[in-house]
């Protein structure tokens, strides 16, 4: 789920930071620049791991700051395809079930990747799994907001979200921000693209709301306990008949 990305950047240190040791100033500047930002085709940056190499520091004409070429490793959130992760349901819509991990919200389970058959309840604003029973009927299992859910990563989407158009006409999203897309109108939708989002699936056994499988396990344990009691009673009856 978390990986180390090897990156390279030219870090600018302002003159007022010259009192700090160079590695410390560079670490602070890298974290200020990258923490909680999305790098295209890299992932969501979390924190600096370490500095691999520091180049020579130079001061450019007309600029009192120092510029240093730095090779470093950064902790990045970018789960592999097929990873199983537990999150919480943030909301439901006709687009599917929206999941949050607390620090990352752009996870969507589309309707085609839900358990089959499922339907969307407009009044409840929730998806419902029509769980089939042995007698041929179905039992509705609701996917409520705040429930813990286990899902499998099935895809990822990176989008270039640089601002388009003057800022006085529309409010563009940050080109590296990890914000949830929103806004209305075609121009607003284009400027508010989500830079990184995850596509997930729960349409296989063991995935979905954790409460589903806990309840099922409890029912199986109860059934198993009843079967054991019946076997013990039958054995007692058999042993009693033999003694007579």
Automatic annotation (TrEMBL):
Its main location: nucleus. Belongs to the eukaryotic RPB7/RPC8 RNA polymerase subunit family. Pfam families: RNA_pol_Rbc25, SHS2_Rpb7-N. This is DNA-directed RNA polymerase III subunit RPC8. CDD domains: RNAP_III_Rpc25_N. Residues 157-197, 212-244 are annotated as: Disordered. GO terms for cellular component: RNA polymerase III complex. SUPFAM superfamilies: N-terminal, heterodimerisation domain of RBP7 (RpoE), Nucleic acid-binding proteins. Gene3D superfamilies: Nucleic acid-binding proteins, RNA polymerase Rpb7-like, N-terminal domain. Keywords: Antiviral defense, DNA-directed RNA polymerase, Immunity, Innate immunity, Nucleus, Transcription. It is found in: Nucleus. Residues 83-213 form the RNA polymerase III subunit Rpc25 domain. DNA-dependent RNA polymerase catalyzes the transcription of DNA into RNA using the four ribonucleoside triphosphates as substrates. Specific peripheric component of RNA polymerase III (Pol III) which synthesizes small non-coding RNAs including 5S rRNA, snRNAs, tRNAs and miRNAs from at least 500 distinct genomic loci. With CRCP/RPC9 forms a mobile stalk that protrudes from Pol III core and functions primarily in transcription initiation. Pol III plays a key role in sensing and limiting infection by intracellular bacteria and DNA viruses. GO terms for biological process: defense response to virus; innate immune response; transcription initiation at RNA polymerase III promoter. Residues 218-244 have a biased composition (Acidic residues). The keyword Nucleus applies. Component of the RNA polymerase III complex consisting of 17 subunits: a ten-subunit horseshoe-shaped catalytic core composed of POLR3A/RPC1, POLR3B/RPC2, POLR1C/RPAC1, POLR1D/RPAC2, POLR3K/RPC10, POLR2E/RPABC1, POLR2F/RPABC2, POLR2H/RPABC3, POLR2K/RPABC4 and POLR2L/RPABC5; a mobile stalk composed of two subunits POLR3H/RPC8 and CRCP/RPC9, protruding from the core and functioning primarily in transcription initiation; and additional subunits homologous to general transcription factors of the RNA polymerase II machinery, POLR3C/RPC3-POLR3F/RPC6-POLR3G/RPC7 heterotrimer required for transcription initiation and POLR3D/RPC4-POLR3E/RPC5 heterodimer involved in both transcription initiation and termination.
């Amino acid at each position: 789920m978390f990986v180390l990305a090897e990156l390279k950047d030219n870090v600018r240190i302002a003159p007022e930071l010259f009192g700090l040791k160079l590695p410390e100033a560079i670490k602070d500047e890298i974290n200020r620049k990258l923490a909680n930002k999305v790098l295209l085709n890299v992932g969501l940056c979390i924190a600096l791991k370490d500095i691999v190499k520091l180049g020579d520091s130079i001061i450019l004409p007309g600029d009192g700051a120092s510029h240093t070429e730095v090779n470093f490793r950064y902790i990045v959130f970018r789960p592999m395809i097929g990873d199983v992760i537990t999150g919480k349901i943030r909301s439901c819509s006709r687009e599917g079930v929206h999941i949050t991990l607390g620090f990352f919200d752009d996870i969507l389970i589309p309707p085609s990747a839900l358990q089959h058959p499922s339907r969307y309840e407009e009044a409840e604003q929730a998806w419902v799994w029509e769980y089939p029973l042995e007698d041929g009927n179905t039992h509705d299992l609701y996917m409520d907001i705040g429930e813990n859910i286990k899902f499998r990563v099935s895809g990822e989407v990176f989008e270039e979200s640089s601002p388009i158009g003057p800022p006085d006409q529309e409010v563009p999203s940050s080109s590296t921000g990890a914000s949830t897309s929103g806004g209305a109108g075609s121009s607003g939708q284009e400027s508010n693209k989500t830079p990184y989002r995850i596509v997930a699936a729960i349409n296989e056994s063991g995935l979905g709301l954790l409460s589903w499988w806990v309840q099922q396990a409890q029912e199986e344990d109860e059934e198993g306990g009843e079967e054991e009691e019946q076997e013990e009673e039958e054995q007692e009856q058999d042993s009693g008949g033999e003694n007579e």
